[in-house]
């Protein structure tokens, strides 16, 4: 409900509005003094995945950036935000409307009077003077949301590329583990042939024959489990690539891939390198602007209007003698059941929510980098130790098989040596994957070479 205001009421509302001042900038979480386990390396670029030196991976990334539907949806949201920003800026300018009408008038009954045409037209201009910055705050909020949408698209692009690289590395690793499973199955079947020959000659027991047959069956089961996992990964890759059919089998070699050697930089620089943090900051800026607009909505509004209207029997005389009007109106809410105050309180609480979210994202960003650095150091140490584990497992199998063939040992030690070697080879493949994934995790945590580009 609005009423024209007296000067005294205007002054009272003005004084009440001035009591609402912008919030002081809140303190943000402090950055760590330095990273633990940081290594010297190259700076992250926005094509960091090319460090794997795989043309196949490069082609998959290009396909995903073209066809991924989540990325397409983010681009559409960005266009929506651009349109909303233009709409929010429109009230800052005057509005001009025009109308034109035509009618034909005459008497009914055929008394011979001639019917006549009548034309009317008018122009109406209106403008709200932004006394307290409400309209400007609405526009600032829309601009901040536009910026947040742009950063959201960039964050999704980073997430898409990192997720696709991780999925592709899992596919390559599963192909390698399948190859190892086939080799171990062939080896188990070869040993089974030896046990079968000894059983036929009466040199071994049915128990040993059954044990080796069980080991062969176990290797086949493990191979089929890996095959299923490989099929699942190809299906997941298809989703990221924006295609309906599963992705093709990779031709890359796990042993030929090298993890990117990346430098973590300074912890204090991280806030400027991650699009998700920039998005959270832009959302907080939008909330600040919305709060300013909600507070200004409690204050009076000044509207100016002007109009010109004409009416004539012919179009060329329509505005020969127009009527004009000029008006100014100062209005303010008197009683609205607390709706405007509630909107102000809601905007204030929303700002507090986004501020807490922003702080939490900062804390998580520092943790992401540190966890990735920890993984890089820890996995590298495990990898070096695993090389010795695998070498000794290979030697143990050779010795156990020779002793069994010579009749100097029973099958139990040979079975154990076979299982140990297979587990060692499989663990080596998994650790090689973990080394590569730690590089991907670090690139993602550091922002993937992102920087805030100029608006476009």
From TrEMBL:
Molecular-function GO term, any one: efflux transmembrane transporter activity
Q: Which residues form a coiled coil?
A: 209-243
Instruction: Show the PANTHER family listed in the entry.
Output: BLR4455 PROTEIN, OUTER MEMBRANE CATION EFFLUX PROTEIN
Q: Where in the cell is it found?
A: Cell outer membrane
Cite the NCBIfam families for this sequence: outer_NodT
Its membrane topology, per UniProt?
Lipid-anchor
Name the keywords, alphabetized: Cell outer membrane, Coiled coil, Lipoprotein, Membrane, Palmitate, Transmembrane, Transmembrane beta strand
Q: What is its main location?
A: membrane
Q: Name one Pfam family in it.
A: OEP
In its UniProt entry, what is this protein called? Answer: Efflux transporter, outer membrane factor (OMF) lipoprotein, NodT family
PROSITE patterns tied to this protein? PROKAR_LIPOPROTEIN
Which superkingdom? Answer: Bacteria
User: InterPro entries under this entry?
Assistant: MdtP/NodT-like (IPR010131), OMP_efflux (IPR003423)
